[in-house]
Amino acid sequence: MSISALFGTRVMLIPKPSLNSSSSCIAPLPKCGGAAVIECSSRPQKKATAHHRKTRPKKTQPWDVKRRPTVYEPLPPLPSEWSLLTNESTSQELEAQPLVEVET
User: What pTM does this model have?
Assistant: First the structure.
């Protein structure tokens, strides 16, 4: 199996420098048994949350920037069959109330 089949892209292998060569621009390869070594990426990808925060849609139009949330009219009062529980009510008060059967 080739290296390009593993990584999905073309991989360029640097030839080993000869000992007689006087050029110092080629750095020696790391001794890893001839296998390709992948180190740090120069352009790492953003992780999911960072990517979504950076590329989220931003309001640029003046009418959209100044827009406020919709104000709805207040809800109607609860029906008399319903009871509103607050923090003041305790389990003893709830147990003291008789159960009411509803006919279906």
Answer: 0.27
> How many CB atoms within 10 Å of residue 21?
9
Each residue's pLDDT tens digit, 11-49:
566 666 565 555 445 555 556 565 666 667 788 888 999
Are 4 and 10 within 8 A, CB to CB? Answer: yes
Other Cβ atoms within 10 Å of 64 Cβ, number: 9
Are 16 and 29 contacting, i.e. CB atoms less than 8 angstroms apart?
A: yes
Q: How confident is the model at residue 51 (pLDDT cuts 50, 70, 90)?
A: very high
The CA distance from 29 to 24, in Å, is 13
- Collapsing DSSP states into helix, strand and coil, what is residue 19? coil
Q: How many CB atoms lie within 10 A of CB 17?
A: 14
